[in-house]
Write a structure and sequence with these properties.
Largest sheet: none
Distance between the termini: 8 Å
């Protein structure tokens, strides 16, 4: 019998929800395991499967099998990340016990090189990148830049809605739900918007205008667009770091999740 019954909450989680959570988990794993998957504790040789698949499957299984109690204060992605963080730490500790003279990434170590790693839950998004407070003049300049961007996309209804979503949302990962479209569609809209921004005079003058306080205020909305572009690239490129594509990994993981869900049903 499972320790916790997450079935009611999991019944509301769609494949799209899982895919969005997998994006954030992969971004986290890329950061956490950078340079440590070829040898040592997190290598395929030790885990017997690629690190990305191993920690994704283990984290998802703990929620599906009821080994982890669903935390309402966390999103699905945040829960997967916290579980994966704990798994990585335990795997590193296990490897250290079994290989006392090797570092976590499989190299020989000296006493002065030993660093203890502490498990911690991190926020992938930095809410302070765009200040919450702004004086009246700053807000006026923000409105002015927003209107300039809106004129750039005035011939495209979907892009117009997307720009409105950027203004309304604090983080890039809030946009799919706000617009009611898939993450993949949001990625394509972001790419389309970036092409227009880069071709515009706003993009050409961005560096120069940033040199003054007035310029920074005027370009604040453009900076938000560029920040969201960085988040989009980070999510997509994280899969490349593990030698796979977003589509391939998510297809494998959804198949695993569906299989695990069926197994749990049969046991209950």
């Amino acid at each position: 019998m499972p320790k916790y019954d997450n079935s009611e909450r999991l019944s509301t989680v769609s494949d799209q929800d899982w895919c969005e959570a997998l994006d954030e988990l992969t971004t986290y794993l890329k950061w956490r395991l950078k340079g440590r998957t070829k040898w040592g504790a997190h290598s395929e040789k030790v885990l017997e499967t690629p690190a990305l698949d191993f920690y994704t499957e283990e984290a998802a299984a703990k929620i599906l099998e009821g080994c982890w109690k669903w935390q309402n204060r966390y999103t699905l992605a945040q829960q997967l990340i916290e579980i994966a963080s704990n798994l990585i730490t335990k795997q590193a500790e296990k490897y250290a016990r079994e290989h006392p003279f090797l570092t976590e990434d499989g190299r020989c170590k000296r006493e002065d090189m030993i660093l203890r790693r502490k498990a911690e839950f991190i926020e992938l998004r930095d809410p302070e990148m765009l200040p919450d407070t702004m004086d009246d003049d700053g807000q006026e300049e923000l409105d002015e830049t927003y209107e300039m961007v809106m004129r750039l996309v005035s011939d495209d209804k979907e892009l117009t809605v997307y720009v409105e979503a950027i203004r309304a949302c604090g983080h890039f990962d809030e946009i799919p739900a706000y617009m009611g479209v898939s993450v993949k569609r949001v990625y394509r809209l972001q790419e389309k918007l970036m092409r227009r921004v880069r071709r515009s005079k706003m993009s050409e003058g961005r560096g120069k205008m940033d040199e003054t306080d007035e310029g920074k205020k005027r370009m604040r909305f453009i900076d938000k667009i560029y920040m969201f572009e960085a988040e989009r690239k980070s999510a997509e490129e994280s899969y490349n770091a593990f030698g796979t594509t977003r589509e391939e990994h998510q297809k494998r993981m959804l198949a695993f999740i569906h299989k695990k869900q069926e197994e749990v049903k049969k046991k209950s």
